[in-house]
Design a protein that fits this description.
The complex is a heterodimer of chains A (266) and B (175).
Chain A (H helix, E strand, L loop, with lengths): L2 H16 L17 H4 L9 E5 L6 E5 L10 H14 E4 L7 H12 L13 E4 L4 H7 L1 H7 L4 H4 L13 H16 L5 E6 L5 E12 L3 E7 L8 E6 L4 E4 L8 E8 L6
Parallel strand pairs in A: 3-4
Antiparallel strand pairs in A: 1-2, 5-6, 5-10, 6-7, 7-8, 8-9, 9-10
Chain B lengths: L1 H16 L2 H10 E15 L2 E12 L4 E12 H6 L10 E3 L1 H10 L1 E2 L1 E5 L2 E5 L17 E4 L7 H25 L2
Antiparallel strand pairs in B: 1-2, 1-5, 1-8, 2-3, 3-4, 6-7
The chains are: A alpha+beta (266), B alpha+beta (175).
Amino acid sequence: MPRVRVRSVLLLVLALAAGCARRAPTIVTPAPSFRFAQDTFAFPNETAWEYEIDAATGAMRWHERNPTPDFILRCGNMVSAARTFHLQARFAPDAPPVDDAAYAALMRTVIARDPRRTTPAPDPVVIPGYPDLRTFSAAHEAAMKVALLGPWQSYLQRGNWRMIFPFTIEHQRHEAESMAAAVRSGMTPIVHIVVFPASTLNHLLLVYAVEETPSDIRFTAYDPNNADAPLVFRWDRGDRVFHYPRTDYFVGGPVRGYVVYDGLLY
Amino acid sequence: MGCCTSRALALGMALLVSGCFSGHLLDHARRREQVVTWQEAFVDGNDLVVRYAAVDVDDAGRPAGTTERWASIPLAEVRAGNRNVDTLSVRWLSDREAERRRGAGLPVQMVHGDTGLIVRETSESTPSPPLAAGAFTRLHIQPWVWPLLPFTLAVDAVGTPALLLFAPAVISVGD
């Protein structure tokens, strides 16, 4: 094997091992701004566990829900589908409605599209009779949950390989800054938030707004576990780590984050 | 030959240090000293010198002790304000150096604002812009980790190739 090729293979192996494979800059086409009240699903991804936070100690306990909810472990399915609907579907409220079977087919068509696309599609799927995803998914909740497919979509998310490798501070800073730049340019990156190996959090969010201060970068995100309000997490410039807020399913604190549904490796 | 050997060694080290066990062990040993209260401040030459109480938190955000610390920051950066805290030139001082500088320093008035430390260099001067406490967060690695690293490096030497095989499988099967 030529020496140059050997070096290339070694470099690729090194990049994989270090988990530092970085994405090339993306050419940006302006996208419509993401609106939480319109561009998200009307129902949440439910959690398999019920969490209780001890008010005195702040510690979190959890136990399995009984009975187990039907629609769980779909955070990856929901955020990737929300972005696909946002960029690759067009709602036409004034167009005449179609029957349930036709709507189900439209859902499948949208969700089958490339979830890695970060710019508006030139040929969006037209959804007649509804003004936005929120209304559409409220009216066809059962069909939408079927169209979103099973938990294996989240289990087998391509970028999951990265979570087991440690994240350097410099890597995390790069993720925060590049994510902020992407959001400022109108994109909606999907971020995988992990606490590993503790595994107290393993979740995906869709980021759609950013605010910078001297102390931190605050990201506003669609959290599929909560259909009622967006979630704000932040990159703390002093601590040099992402901080996740306390929620119904996480006690709050430092986490790691990296952008997924983006490029070949993620 | 020597060149190739050193390159191979460098590659091997890079692979191992980025490995699962060593990296996560280092994460586990990481501490962040975060400012809790400002205690004292004075101007020495071109620097603002501050003493503060800090809480040491582990990588999961749990408190793991308290300490007192001295640090200095160029006055020009304090007066300019509105700079990202990770771009400020904070320097941590030993107690000995701080005591020496305190002798020559001019005390300043501190205002404990919600958004950070505000100082007045003289009673007539205008208050400085808020200096975010995050500028003084100090990261360090607990020393107990160093003797363990040879063992985790050995584990990574075995485990990293398996993880490398695993990663492409996830990528190719994934979504």
